[in-house]
Each structure stands twice: as C-alpha cells, then as structure tokens.
Specification:
The chain is an alpha/beta fold. It has one domain: NAD(P)-binding Rossmann-like Domain (Rossmann fold), CATH 3.40.50. Helix content is 33%, strand content 19%. It is built from seven helices and ten strands. The strands form three sheets. A six-stranded parallel sheet has the order 3-2-1-4-5-6, with helices on both faces. Strands 7-9 form a two-stranded parallel sheet. It has a two-stranded antiparallel ribbon with strand order 8-10. The longest helix is centred in the middle third of the chain and has 17 residues. The protein is globular.
Length: 243
C-alpha cells in the first residue's frame, strides 16, 4: 500500500513510519525538517514542508492509497485543525478515501463511558494548552462531515515502547493515570487501514492498568517527552516526539 503519513517525527509518527516500512508499504512523509526523519529506506520518500501549507499537503497525498495523521501536540495544536482540513481537502481532490487519525481520548463519541477520569482530563489538557481541546474537537467535526472512510484512534498519555501485542481497544474507562505505548498505537492505526469495520468509528487504545508515578510526572511536573530533534540519539533507543 502507498501511505502518506503526517506527524512522522512525533511520538506516534516515528513508530508508524518504522512499522509501515517493515510491513512492506511505500511511505511518503511530510516533515518541517527532513533531517529529523532518521529512517533510511528505499520505500520512504520525505518531503520538506508544513502540514499547514496546502501545496505541501497536496504533494504528500498525491498518489497515496491511504493517509495516516498523527498531527499536533501541546505546542502545536492548530496543526490538528488546520492540517486535517487541508488533508481531507487534498484527499478529495486526489480521490483518496481512507484516513486514520490519532488523537486524544478526551474527544467524545456517543456511547463512551462517563467515568470521573473523562471529566478530570479536560482541565489537565487545558493547563497544557489553552487551544488543544478546541482544535481537536474541530478536527473531529471535520472527520465526521468529510465523507471519507475515516477512523479516529483515541489514546491516553503515551510512552515510548515497542508493541506489547495486548492493547485494550474499544470504548474504555480511561483517565489521567491511563497510558499506552506508542508502538501499540502505531500497530492499531496501521491495522485499521485495511479493516472496513473500523470505518466511521473512534476506538480508544490503552495498555492494562494505571500508572500513577508516570502520570504524576507528566501532568503535574510537566515531564513530557522532549521533541525528537532535542534528544540525544545515543541516549535512548525508544522513538518519541511530538510532530
């Protein structure tokens, strides 16, 4: 399959690109700085540009069979809204129908459990970014009205790690202490591409259990993963960054 991936240098994007290439897909990615895409592969094409640039998005989507977007983060939330609008428009122009988007579990879908954790996550997200909630909700509305074959993969706090092979999926009771490794998120997103039963759905993905200490560092102390470009490659083998 020919895939266009947005957010390729982010927490989800890095394992997405790696797993897609390992599975034999042809991958085209858009990156503000192509040197930040460290994977070298003959099946990988890296374009320089921004997901908020219509021409760059159009060039990335052209010729793709499907698109995966992992755009956004606390420091770049408007790329979720603006980038997704440009992606869906480019897909319509190119005749591409399949889109998988990764975003947070705070986005509401009919049938979701109304547990306390769903309520407490919103002020924590607001503390991290005053605009992320509004931008991501606008993106979800864009998906619902896009007319495309979309899937929205919703995640809690993410950590670096290889796929565990046992993530929980569905409409889950998640909260600030919930987490998931990015390898599992990438695996679920890629599997959804060829699964028509996920069209128009928004499954949550999480690993079993709650992780109090890691969550406290993330939400209360601001110990979030550094952007990949700020990390020392020799210091860790785990992929991770925001887009």
């Amino acid at each position: 399959m020919k895939l266009a991936i947005f957010g390729a240098t982010g927490t989800v994007g890095v394992p997405l690109v790696a797993q897609a290439l390992d599975a034999g897909h042809q991958v085209r990615v858009l990156a503000r700085d192509p040197t930040k895409v460290t994977r070298a592969d003959p099946s990988l094409t890296v374009l320089a540009g921004d997901a908020k640039d219509p021409e760059a998005v159009t060039a990335t989507v052209a010729g793709a069979d499907a698109v995966v977007s992992a755009l956004g983060g606390f420091g770049d939330s408007d790329s979720i809204r603006v980038g997704t609008a440009l992606i869906t428009a480019a897909m319509h122009d190119a005749g591409v129908r399949r889109l998988v988007v990764v975003q947070g579990f705070h986005l509401d879908v009919p049938g979701d459990p109304r547990n306390l954790g769903r309520t407490t996550i919103l002020p924590l997200l607001w503390l991290g970014s005053r605009t992320l909630i509004a931008d991501s909700r606008a993106m979800a509305s864009q998906l619902a009205s896009s007319g495309l074959d979309w899937t929205l993969v919703r995640v809690p706090r993410m950590t670096d790690g290889a796929p565990t092979g046992r993530p929980r999926t569905g409409q889950l009771r998640l909260g600030p202490f919930s987490s998931v490794v990015n390898g599992d998120v990438a695996q679920v997103a890629l599997a959804a591409l060829s699964d028509p039963t996920t069209f128009g759905t928004a499954p949550m993905v999480a690993n079993p259990g709650n992780h109090l200490l890691g969550a406290a560092g993330y939400w209360l102390l601001g110990k979030r993963p550094a952007p990949r470009e700020d990390r020392d490659p020799a210091a860790t083998t785990s992929p991770g960054a925001r887009s």
